[in-house]
Amino acid sequence: MENEILRTENLKAYYGNQEILKGITISFPQNRVTAVMGPSGCGKTTFIRCLNRMHELSPNARVEGKVFLHGEDIYAIDPMLVRRKIGMVFQRPNPFPTMSIYDNVIAGYKLNGIKLPKNEMDRIVEESLKKAALWDEVKNHLHKLGTFLSGGQQQRLCIARALAMNPDVLLLDEPTSALDPIATSRIEELMIELKKTVTVILVTHNIAQAGRVSDYAAFLYLGELVEFGPTRTMFTTPKDRRTEEFLTGKFG
Amino acid sequence: MPKVRSEKSRIIKDKIFKIVIFLLATITIIPLFLILYYIVQKGLKVVSPEFLLSLPKPPGEEGGGILNALIGTGIIISLASIISIPPGIAAGIYMAERKESKLSALARLCVEVLQSIPSIVVGIVAYIWIVMPMQSFSALSGGIALGIIMFPVVVRTTEETMKFIPGTLKEAALALGVPYYKAILKVVLPASLSGILTGVLIGIARIAGETAPLLFTAFGSPHLELNLFKPMSALSLFIFNYATSPYVEWHELAWGASFILVSMVLVINIIARVIAKRWKTRF
Fold this sequence. Notes:
Chain A has 252 residues and is α/β, with parallel strands linked by helices. Chain A is built from ten helices and ten strands. In chain A, the strands form two sheets. A six-stranded mixed beta sheet of chain A has the order 6-7-8-3-9-10, with helices on both faces. The longest helix of chain A is centred in the middle third of the chain and has 14 residues, at 118-131. The two termini of chain A are 30 Å apart. In chain B, helix 1 crosses helix 12 (248-278), helix 3 packs antiparallel against helix 4 (102-116) and helix 5 packs across helix 6. The model of chain B has no long low-confidence stretch (mean pLDDT 93). Chain A binds chain B through residues 52, 54, 57, 59, 80-84, 87-88, 90, 92, 94-98, 107-108, 111-113, 145, 147-148, 158, 161-162, 165, and chain B through 100, 166, 168-169, 171-179, 182-183, 186-187, 190-191, 193, 281-283.
């Protein structure tokens, strides 16, 4: 097994009395792309929202079990610190509408009251935009509003914003579901590039996408982890009948 | 054939309907323009720099101005704004953030009721609460009375505007490890700014012409009063007092003051519209 960065132990999540996740134990390898797949309503979004403690923000939400980042239980430390270590990108691009491209990227620092010298901020902005493969397109109008960009560019801006905080893990919640095919393929290329510096956990309902970009894949069904392993192995020789049916499009 | 006839009558009905709604829409414009025409005709000739910058003169003397009322309106509106805007925005934030809570439901009801309380009643209450204990009419009591009237307007527009901000925006901030209060104050609130500002301006336009509550509170004064604890004039009070006086020269002053007040309200409303359109946040 490879270097582990993030691990869950018997993770359960609830909305009110409804059990969404029924005890998930999984270990995410460092600097790899892991795809979390499953049909709609299987709990995959809830699952990654538990990994950076966003789930608990919903009314009536509750979490049981443990999540370890570098061996440290994230439910024992301040959620705000957790979220700086574990970044997140959402289904729909959501740049801050009142901020420029530059300010969007550096927002994690500014909003957290972390003061940096100007040249340091410039460096972080440039580096993050380069990592997100957006630098060349926006370097001449960094002070335009982020919302003037196209949907795909906005999503890469959101990735840059998350990367600027230098997280250990980047959670991507169906990041291409609102994008056209060209923007989608750019984001997919980017994900493969990103794993050099960060561990990527990708939620997707798109089996082909999981096959293209992920090293490991997890299949969630009705709140349970059915199967987890190297993507290639799972796609060629699934161990569980449900996984096979999902991969061959029998449901989902 | 009966079919064709019904077809024809339908087309005619359709035309009649279109004409009727067009005419009725036109009629709604007429009263405003009549009022404006009348006020411009009577008031414009009175208005001059001197009219704006001098104090009213005793009856029988020509000239005189509305400086005391102009400054008074400015001070009382500022007081009302200070009193109503910060708590109004805070309450609106709470109600938009905790839509389902019992407190929000109760607050929503109270705000609606507050909005429909006649302004004269608010004036009487301010009289009992503030003027009587302090044993003096004052700009402060007038500002509080108008603040109470403006408060529900600010609460409702803040709530309505913030409801339209996508929840994903707040989540984006929280996912960066930003504390909740900063996510609200630095991300959600700026995105709602144009809406809230519009609401505030509409609130100001609403109270700028209020007269009844000021009769019990600010009361009016012929002097240039800057002390918040003393009786103070305001444009609406000035119009009321001078228009009901028996002196022709004072009637002239009242017309001029009406012109200024109406122009002010009009300009504020237009600015509010422009802000709502131009500064609208794109998502």
